[in-house]
Design brief:
Keywords: Membrane, Transmembrane, Transmembrane helix. This protein has 383 residues and is mostly helical. It is 75% helix and 0% strand. The protein has one domain.
Length: 383
């Protein structure tokens, strides 16, 4: 096991302090629907009905431990938020190290930029909803485990890695709603590492889809067993029972359900059209770069990522139709802008070459970060 660098510890502490300030209203106690639900029915019943029956085995264990020690609801809510922030800051460090390993550049700017990109990728505009619920901890753990799985798959030359599969399964049993993040970030890093080697990219992505499918199937089996044991039928994944019918319904309402609610409104977690505007701006940077560096395929890779995100979003709407318009289900959408910045940093010289394009790109990154923080503050203020 590699030693943790002192620099990473310092960065972690700074990230934790900044994140704690941003999400202070959540840390200082807030009430969500599940908070009142726990207060009404107790930890044990909530753990069985809302965690065990929904395939969130580790959240079930956390709930049962809270019942065992008779943890006050305030301590439970605050504890889950603080732990989630800690885990998410660790995820930022890991993502930052992945970026810097793929593009090792020296200089303060080339240390700061990967940190900023990683921070806004993990703590994106959809993330604020993750912290709203007591499941915040398991959501954060699932994101971290998926990220570690991608890290292993990127660093190994093998197509099939058992440890990566185990990480994906554990992540899915923490919280299956973030499974799209795994596939999306996997494709992004495959495009970065195996530049233009689409045969390798396709093979490794195929293995990733197999891992995701296997973990999701195992999770469904656990749900069926839990429903049988408890005698209570879960409701959140009812779209799975009628995939074709639900898929047709989502396809017919694609414009209103996906384009308007998720991409334009960003599930009401980001100002209207901001997501589309930022994506378009980065896409234009990629197009201009392509025109200057004709051998590069930045625009093609960006379009591939956009199409893949559309597919993931469509799939998540199908399997989670009852909560299709919630930010926690569409976490991959929130990561999109950070991923595009990651690609620009690793696969182009936009951040290296002194030019107007670098100034514009860095300025755009800072504007995006400030926009996310500002929106988070406006939402959390009323928590």
């Amino acid at each position: 096991m590699k030693r943790i660098q002192k620099k990473d510890i310092v960065i972690f502490l700074i990230l934790f302090i900044i994140s704690s300030i941003i999400y202070w209203n959540y840390i200082s106690m807030h009430y969500a629907t599940d908070t009142y639900n726990i207060m009404n029915i107790g930890y044990k019943e909530y753990a069985i009905q809302n965690s065990f029956n929904d395939g969130r085995f580790f959240m079930f264990l956390i709930g049962m431990i809270a019942q065992l020690v008779n943890l006050p609801i305030e301590g439970y809510v605050i504890g889950t938020v603080v732990i989630a922030i800690i885990i998410s800051c660790i995820a930022v460090i890991i993502l930052k190290n992945m970026i810097m390993k793929l593009k090792p550049l020296k200089g303060k700017l080339y240390e700061i930029i990967p940190i900023l990109i990683s921070f806004v990728t993990i703590f994106n505009f959809m993330y604020v909803e993750n912290l709203y619920f007591v499941e915040a901890t398991v959501m954060a753990v699932s994101i971290l485990l998926y990220l570690l799985a991608v890290k292993r798959q990127i660093e190994t030359e093998k197509y099939f890695d058992w440890k990566s599969l185990l990480l994906v399964i554990l992540a899915t049993f923490c919280y299956q709603g973030t499974i799209g993040f795994y596939l999306f970030i996997l494709l992004a890093f495959l495009l970065i590492k195996h530049k233009n080697d689409y045969k390798t990219i396709l093979k490794k992505l195929g293995v990733g889809i197999l891992f995701a499918g296997a973990s999701f199937l195992l999770n469904l089996i656990q749900i069926k067993i839990a429903n049988y044991v408890s005698g209570i039928e879960q409701q959140r994944l009812n779209g799975v029972e009628n995939l074709l019918g639900t898929a047709w319904m989502v396809a017919r309402n694609f414009h209103s359900m996906i384009y308007e609610i998720i991409f334009q409104e960003s599930c009401w977690l980001f100002p209207k059209n901001y997501f589309l505007i930022f994506v378009l701006c980065i896409l234009l940077i990629g197009i201009i770069y392509n025109l200057k560096e004709k051998e590069e395929n930045t625009t093609g890779d960006f379009l591939l990522l956009i199409l893949f995100l559309l597919g993931i979003t469509f799939a998540m709407c199908i399997v989670s139709i009852t909560s299709y318009d919630t930010g926690r289900i569409h976490y991959p959408v929130g990561t999109m802008i950070g991923i595009l910045f990651t690609y620009l940093y690793c696969n182009t010289n936009v951040f290296e070459k002194e030019s107007k394009m670098r100034i514009i790109t860095v300025f755009l990154l800072f504007v995006y970060i400030l926009a996310v923080i500002r929106k988070h503050n406006s939402i959390i203020k009323y928590a």
